[in-house]
Amino acid sequence: MNILLLGNGGREHAIAKTLKRSPQNPKIFTFANAKNPGICKISEEYEICSQKNFGEEDGFTHLKKFAEENKIDFTILGPDDPIGAGAADSLLKVGVKSVGPLKSLARLESSKSFTRNLLEKYGIPGNPEFKVFISMEGMNKFCEHLEGNFVIKDDGLCGGKGVHVSGDHFSTLQEGLRIAEKILKEHGKLVIEEKFIGQEFSLMYFTDGNVVKPMPVVQDHKRAFEGDTGPNTGGMGTYSYPENLPFLTAQHLEEAREITEQTMRALEKECGSKYMGIMYGGFIATKKGTRLIEYNSRFGDPEGLNVLPLLESDLVEICLGIINGNLSEKEVRFAKKATVCKYVCPEGYPSNPVKSAEITIGDVPKNVEVFFSSIDEIDGKFTLKGSRAIGFVGIADDIFEAEKLAEKACNAVSGPVFHRRDIGTKELIEKRIEMMMNL
Ligand code: GLY
């Protein structure tokens, strides 16, 4: 079987490694915009194209040619940009199905207003109070109505930088309005919504548009520095427990599943075709229950790094179930283990990262999975490229053991790098539990 993998980050390295464990022994053909030394090693062919060709509709010609030349059976779409631009539609034109939604369905992630309106139109629970704006008219009044506790979301994809939360990213209503004005000038549309208080969690589902099958629940850490301080990043690290996260109840997960199932059905009614791929819900457990922060149309990065190594079922079979609409017949089973993922990043990341500096990777303990991301390797020498460099995932029966493993692996890296030491520690997790108890 020939599988096309689109993308070259840590998430795609995790997908590639999981495919390689398949008893069907598939060949992987990677279409990327940069080299990933980990994916390169396990790919039959590794095609690097320009940024434009990678993520833009105009450039999908190159992608289609690569798929045709390599007689691809199906594609797994990694990053949000090409998914939002319609990579699945382009590949379908040359007869290649994708694990990843068509452009119209991908609005689930690529348009925040689309998803809020969809949930409202179909009476799906989980939405905040919200309004979509294309001008400043009425915005002041609505923000006052929300008593100054609001979130501003750029309507489109912004590489994780499109969300501004009162109290975190701005402190007064006037400051918030200035941010909104800037977004409107640049992108023309935004959503203002009620701010939720609670604990966030990521819950990803495989779906063929008929059923949803959940992966283990994960918690991400978006802020660059310890204690959840500093600028937002793509995600500094994540953890999962063998069962549920300790500050969530089974009810929280059940509500998330209900929201996702209803959204899957609403998408088909709205768009006229089934959503096939990953539905990744960013949820928040509030004192009134589970609420939806946003959906993404792909595996999370780092979340995918936590869950894919635990997958005991065959990812190739799951993908076939997704694209052929018989996912209900496929087994989706994960090992009941704890995981802690920590990303090693260049000093200065995300605002002013060190680039081109050499790093060395010492001994990584057993039971740690290594996923390369923004890093190059030439003749055995590793250099930083400016974004999250290596994701280390400790896997153990116990979360704190998994944390120690990930920490040990991060400390084996020498060079101008840093990571968040607090992810997966007892101190940090206890704070989260206490916060939920207080709520
Ligand atoms: N973990 C954040 C993301 O994948 O968007």
Average pLDDT taken over every residue = 96
Outline type: globular
Strand content: 25-35%
What ions, cofactors and ligands are bound? glycine
- Fraction in helix: 25-40%
Rg to the nearest angstrom?
A: 21 Å
**Ends: how far apart?**
51 Å
Describe the structure.
With 439 residues, the chain is of the alpha+beta class. The chain has helices at residues 10-20, 37-42, 51-55, 60-69, 80-85, 87-93, 107-110, 112-121, 139-145, 173-187, 250-271, 303-307, 315-324, 399-411, 426-438; strands at 2-6, 27-32, 45-48, 74-77, 97-99, 130-133, 150-154, 163-165, 190-194, 199-207, 212-214, 219-225, 229-240, 277-286, 289-296, 338-346, 358-361, 368-372, 375-378, 381-384, 390-396, 413-414, 417-418. The strands form five sheets. Strands 12, 13, 16, 18, 21 and 23 form a six-stranded antiparallel beta sheet that branches. Strands 3-2-1-4-5 form a five-stranded parallel beta sheet, sandwiched between helices. Helix 4 packs across helix 6. 48% of the residues are buried. The site of glycine (GLY) has 6 residues, from loops.
